Amino acid sequence: MLGDFLSAVVALELTSLFLRATGRPVLNWSDSLIWVGFWILWRAYQGLYPGYGRSPQTELRLHTVGTVQLLGAQLAAAFAVHQLAPSALGLVLQWGLILVLALLIRYGLRSLLIRGGQYGRAISVIGAGQTAALTIAHLRSNPAYGLNPVVAYDDNPALHGTLLEGVPIVGTLDDALNVPRTAQALISIPGARAEVQQRVVNSVYAVYPFTWVVPDLFWVPNQALQPHNIGSIATLEIKNNLKSVQARLIKRALDLMLSVVGLFLIFPILIAIAFLIRWDSKGPAIYKAERLGRNGKTFPCYKFRSMYQNSEERLVELLAADAARRTEYEKFHKLRDDPRVTRIGAFLRKTSLDELPQLLNVVLGQMSLIGPRPYLPREQSKMGNMAREILLVNPGMTGYWQVNERSQSTFERRLDMDRFYIANWTPWLDVLILIQTVRVVLMGKGAY
After folding, report:
1. Model's pTM, two decimal places?
2. Nearest to 59 by CA among 109, 2, 6, 103
3. Residue 127 to residue 151: CA distance in whole angstroms
4. Integer distance in angstroms from the first to the last C-alpha of the chain?
């Protein structure tokens, strides 16, 4: 909350400096701070303080929508009562700065709190099966969720005293109910019978102020779930976001706008990179790699050349002579120390600059800025049943697996993450991936 207030004050000061410099009427600080107070109250109502348990894309959606709503409310008031806002441009600039600054400060403060061990709510995990292990592993590797598993319970006595992904299993369900150690419980027994689930949920709900339940809905699009009730019956609506014509139009419009603007802005950089590639080794600066597109149709994927011209012949010889590298290539479909890569190519891959020409593929409608990995035609057989699902949409220049694991993930893990993206697509997930792509590229993490 203090971070949000600080971002608003900085935005107001920057806006005032701009308005003074351009000779426009300056915003009234007292009126502006009143609206900032409304904004903070609205964010509190949205559950953003502290926002534990929010997925990154949900948090981004609430932040953006809430801030735009306050801008709309203040503009409406300004038009109704002109004394409240002498400059509509000033209002738009002020809230635009708040939109960016508040998000950056929020991320920065949360990172500091996590490093200092001061962020998050301790939770107890009820159930110590495979689902609980996956949940705990994800929460521990993503501390920004703010849910910190500290103890686990299971009625299997053989598990007591052992660790589940680093979390001690300390007792039975009765122990969790009689001596609760945390304010929140996460029930993870999706395989239990309905009557058992009902008894456990009602018992835990009566003891813990916060109770979360992991339902038996694996591989269901969880970002598209919306709870409803029909009388006393709980129901879940599952939206197929990518089947929406409106969603497809929004995604295509964003692709076109950002790719055309991007090509215009970085054109001098593209020319410079092409010159360095030609100077470093023989061959064209840009090559066309055949990739699988939407509905399994192949298309020429444009990339800056990062390998020597006879790379395929070198690969066959290398894999035939080196069993260790053959195993690595079969697992990751990449080689960490690849002798086929040129000097300039190694730099381009490390910074992901070799993929910039794919902006042309985006303009042509063959790719999207965000999407599944562009798979090789020879990989379609390895994709198995997932091929039909993944190839429903255009591949992307960047995507969910690229910003989360990049080259460290196995081929099967990439398939799972691409399937997750398609099933759970929202515009907010795309925006989040774009933000994360900038961070990952600047860090040069996991690329080779």
Report:
1. 0.76
2. 103
3. 10
4. 40
